DNA sequence: TTAGTGTTTTAGTCTTGGCTAAAAATATGA
DNA sequence: TCATATTTTTAGCCAAGACTAAAACACTAA
């Protein structure tokens, strides 16, 4: 079930008003938050109820459902990642980013958001200090493991390095690995623990155990 | 006068169909390009005419105005800048960017585009080799010719493709050709127009005349 | 219990951008 | 030139998301 831009914005407002999906929210409150009229809100609540992202009892306000919470958190995640991008990469001031992020958050492309997240180095907070939900909507934490702990044929994505010295980052860059790269373990040598890694489905990389132990990945 | 997303898309289509604002464009052609019905197009042409971005004479098709051309080029500029961003910064493949750029191009923020341009180092061409109009809508085109128009022993560089369908881009990728590849014509078969191309001074590639006609290059 | 007050919903309207069916205008060819 | 074919427009309808005005409901206080 896909949501329109307007529906996404309502859901986000309801999520915020409900204090993280705990409280009931009234039609009037939503109208105030959305700067619209209660009559328009009633209409929209019916639609959101039909799509089962909220529980709607006429005259008694709404509660957000689990599915709705997930959707809202995804939108919030996108909004905050774009804010980080605008501030860190495009030199926007922290008070200039909201309007633009409000538009950018509705771009539909899971791949785009994954890559953006990698590109920004998996930030945990936006420029206003608000936390950024992870891919799964805050709930699941991603277990990270060092490359040398991965088994042959396992796939994943590089998310961090332990030693982020300039020298090591330079080395990574030189061999064509980077934060966000998709990787697959092709081979592990028993003798010295060195590994053969497929990067982005094209480049093959050989690395010592020491290097592998320095690179953190999530499995996929 | 602001344009809606739909209006921007129509204007872009009309600009493309009119070969850079020179030819008249028929209602039917616009309908085909936009994958919509002529009746819907008539309606939209009336609106675009009212906003003076096109000159609309009923039953005689439309011509784009100076103002319309400027608007269309601004949209194209945004589209191509985003494509560069996706490929250079987010490691998208050049055949994955179009759909997402189609959404991103409608984000309204002149500051965003200025900053993006500067962040990308003021690129002149997008990943498909198409020129990026500057802030004022000026385009610096390179003289390009199709591979099948090149003679034996001529050298050059691939800069664009005519048919940028995912299927064709995928094919190119598979055979090891890409935008920016340096090429040299080793042989042309009189009988069927097929060609033998040296890519990057190492790989030799055989291609039919149809494929060659689809690949644009600049001579060097 | 009932009247009053504020909240919420319904009903009907508007705009945008689609659609189909039918009418009108233009183009073509005998 | 006139009939036919093609293109384009008009007219009327639909859905989304807004609005206003009016009706329905819930809550409170006498």
Task: Offer a concise description of the structure.
Chains A, B: Keywords: Activator, Cytoplasm, DNA-binding, Manganese, Repressor, Transcription, Transcription regulation. Chains A, B: Homodimer. Two copies of one chain form a homodimer. The first copy, chain A, has helices spanning 5-17, 27-34, 38-50, 66-88, 98-104, 110-119, 166-175, 209-213, and strands at 54-56, 62-64, 144-146, 155-161, 182-188, 195-199, 203-207, 215-219.
Report on this model:
Two copies of one chain form a homodimer. Chain A is 40% helix and 17% strand. Chain A has 220 residues and is of the alpha+beta class. Among the domains of chain A are: 60 residues, Arc Repressor Mutant, subunit A; 76 residues, Ferrous iron transport protein A (FeoA) (SH3 type barrels), CATH 2.30.30.90. Chain A has a six-stranded antiparallel sheet. In chain A, strands 1-2 form a two-stranded antiparallel sheet. In chain A, helix 1 packs across helix 2 and helix 2 crosses helix 3. The longest helix of chain A is centred in the middle third of the chain and has 23 residues. The first copy, chain A, is elongated. The model of chain A has no long low-confidence stretch (mean pLDDT 90). Chain A binds a DNA duplex (30 and 30 nucleotides) through helix 3.
How far from one another are the termini of chain A?
Answer: 24 Å
CATH architecture of the domain at 144-219 in chain A: Roll
The shape of chain A is: elongated
Give the ordered list of helices and strands of chain A: HHHEEHHHEEHEEEHE
Helix content of chain A: 40-55%
Subcellular location (chains A, B): Cytoplasm
Subunit structure (chains A, B): Homodimer.
Family (chains A, B): Belongs to the DtxR/MntR family.
Function (chains A, B): In the presence of manganese, represses expression of mntH and mntS. Up-regulates expression of mntP.
